[in-house]
Amino acid sequence: MPELLALFIPILALSIPIIAIWTRHQRELAQIEARRRDEQEGQSQAHVAELEDRLRVLERIITDKGYDVATQIEALRDTRRADARMDDKVS
């Protein structure tokens, strides 16, 4: 039994610094991950703010008096049909 204890003490003494190094490494990895998440969150918030601004502009355009979306969509469809007919005639 004393031989086992004599073997265990140096192993324990050598494992303490290894555990300390591993713990420090894990803490640094956690800090790096937290910074990465914070950066991504900031980018996401900036992207959401940009999209909200664009949505406000679109809402303003759509609700503006005199702006008739359906009429403009139909005008685009008519233009495409006319272009398609012209392409068929040329071919």
Write the layout of secondary structure elements.
Elements: H1 2-63, H2 69-90
Brief synopsis:
Helix content is 92%, strand content 0%. The protein contains 2 helices and no strands.
Could you explain the architecture of this structure?
The protein has 91 residues and is an all-alpha fold. The protein is built from two helices and no strands. The chain has helices at 2-63, 69-90. It is rod-shaped, with a radius of gyration of 34 Å. The relative contact order is 0.04. The model has no long low-confidence stretch (mean pLDDT 83).
Question: Key terms for this structure?
Answer:
single chain, 2 helices, 91 residues, mainly alpha
Shape field: rod-shaped
Give the biggest beta sheet: none
Output mean pLDDT. Answer: 83
> Residue ranges: pLDDT <50 for 5 or more in a row?
none
Strand content range: under 5%
- Content-based structural category: mainly alpha
Number of helices: 2
Total DSSP E strands: 0
